[in-house]
């Protein structure tokens, strides 16, 4: 069977408008996916130059497949199973920063370049004290970006209209602002000049962003073989992604919206003056409900999220937790109930995806820090808004404590007692449930009793 390449398909070619740092599946499954859809719809008309920043692996597979790959979208939408396939041709070439840094600098001199996208992991956006911007290449991603911007500044003599829209997708708070601060620090330390620093601040747009899509990566052997039979070609870069996708970009500048014209192709791309509500929805409903449910799921004997969601009692618990207790705390901070309810329903679809193997034991990693960051503010908000203890949260919290083997009088128990001292009713309800969780077989029974008390309106 032939390997996927451009000779098999009559693909359109476009000018290189995007410089992307990273070859990972999240970038290929989200930004590159949106750009491909926009190109096919006649809304963008640009290709992507990808920079492979690490020295592990090579670019051979991309070269062998003419930078083409297939994305297989599999999951649940509105309760129904969906499967779709899209061939991605938006990448024009992949450059190794280690072996061909000169080509990366050459791309900075391209007058049609408008956008930079990155995903270099959370530790990628850090200030490296060893940085040398004139190395080939610089050590860090911020160093590489600063060198690219300086090359562009020198090439176009600081022209105001040659700045770039920069979209980091690393999962840190205010990623655009943090990245800009590091770039400015590097420019100052290496004495690149006041004019360059002014150009960075005034002519480039560092946007805070939030990305959300599960992209597990390559297909399993059986799925790969089936896909090859259906598509008629072999694809060693094929990836799978869930249907849900979100790329929230923070900007109120009309110029940014004009440059990011691909945002028109999919409601999953949102350009807004403030993206905080999208962070809250994701953190409290998606991540938070995961964390509340995790200990209970493990105690009940479930291995994966999809297995737990296939149980009618457990899935009802998760739904009640979100609709009855978490959503009211979001409405209290200005998020519309309808918007939050729609997001919660999509979370149920995502948790129920039969094509994903998401293990509860993996979710339990760093359990205490996740509980504190994701759910402590939700518990406190609920206490501020209601005199009633949130029973679904309390049960989930009891499951967490039992999973962590916390006992009354113990260090972890006392730590949380201090944190939750203003939520005394919640704490008392948690302890009552904790006493009932001594036998794993009654976990679902406790959940079932809770669900009999009230239904979603």
TrEMBL record:
Span of domain Mannitol dehydrogenase C-terminal: 274-413
Q: Which SUPFAM superfamilies match?
A: 6-phosphogluconate dehydrogenase C-terminal domain-like (SSF48179), NAD(P)-binding Rossmann-fold domains (SSF51735)
Q: Which residues form the Mannitol dehydrogenase N-terminal domain?
A: 17-252
Per UniProt, the keywords (alphabetical) are:
NAD, Oxidoreductase
Entry keyword annotation includes NAD: yes
NCBIfam families the record matches? PRK03643.1
PANTHER family, sorted: ALTRONATE OXIDOREDUCTASE-RELATED (PTHR30524:SF0), MANNITOL-1-PHOSPHATE 5-DEHYDROGENASE (PTHR30524)
Q: What is this protein called?
A: Altronate oxidoreductase
């Amino acid at each position: 069977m032939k390997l996927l390449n451009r000779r098999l398909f009559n693909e359109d070619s476009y000018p290189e408008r995007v410089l992307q740092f990273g070859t990972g599946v999240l970038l290929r499954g989200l930004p590159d996916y949106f750009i491909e859809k926009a190109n096919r719809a006649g809304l963008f008309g640009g290709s992507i130059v990808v920079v492979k920043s690490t020295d592990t692996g090579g670019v051979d597979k991309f070269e062998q497949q003419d930078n083409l790959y297939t994305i297989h979208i599999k999951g649940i939408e509105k309760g129904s199973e969906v499967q779709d396939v899209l061939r991605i041709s938006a990448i024009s070439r992949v450059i190794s920063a280690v072996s061909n840094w000169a080509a990366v600098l050459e791309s900075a001199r391209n007058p049609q370049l408008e956008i930079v996208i990155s995903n270099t992991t959370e530790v990628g956006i850090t200030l490296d004290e060893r940085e040398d911007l004139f190395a080939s290449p610089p050590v860090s991603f911020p160093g590489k970006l600063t060198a690219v911007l300086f090359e562009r500044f020198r090439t176009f003599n600081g022209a105001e209209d040659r700045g770039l829209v920069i979209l980091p997708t690393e999962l840190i708070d205010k990623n655009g602002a943090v990245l800009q601060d590091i770039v400015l620090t590097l420019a100052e330390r290496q004495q690149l000049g006041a004019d360059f620093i002014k150009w960075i601040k005034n002519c480039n747009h560092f946007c805070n962003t939030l990305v959300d899509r599960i992209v597990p990566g390559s297909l399993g052997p059986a799925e790969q073989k089936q896909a090859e039979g259906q598509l008629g070609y072999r694809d060693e870069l094929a990836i799978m992604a869930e249907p849900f996708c979100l790329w929230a970009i923070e900007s109120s500048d009309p110029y940014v919206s004009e440059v990011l014209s691909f945002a028109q192709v999919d409601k999953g791309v949102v350009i807004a003056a403030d993206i905080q509500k999208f962070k809250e929805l994701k953190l409290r409903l998606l991540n938070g409900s995961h964390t509340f449910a995790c200990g209970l799921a493990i105690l009940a004997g479930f291995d994966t999220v999809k297995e737990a969601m296939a149980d009618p009692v457990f899935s009802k618990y998760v739904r009640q937790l979100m609709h009855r207790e978490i959503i009211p705390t979001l409405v209290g901070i200005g998020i519309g109930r309808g918007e939050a309810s729609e997001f919660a329903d999509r979370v149920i679809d995502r948790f129920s995806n039969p094509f994903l193997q998401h293990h509860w034991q993996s979710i339990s990693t760093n359990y205490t820090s996740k509980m504190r960051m994701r759910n402590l503010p939700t518990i406190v908000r609920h206490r501020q808004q209601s005199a009633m203890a949130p029973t679904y949260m309390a049960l989930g919290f009891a499951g967490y404590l039992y999973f962590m083997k916390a006992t009354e009088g113990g260090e972890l128990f006392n730590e949380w007692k201090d944190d939750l001292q203003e939520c005394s009713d919640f704490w008392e309800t948690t302890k009552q449930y904790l006493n009932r969780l001594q036998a794993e077989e009654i976990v679902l029974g406790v959940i079932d009793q809770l669900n009999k008390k009230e239904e979603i309106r």
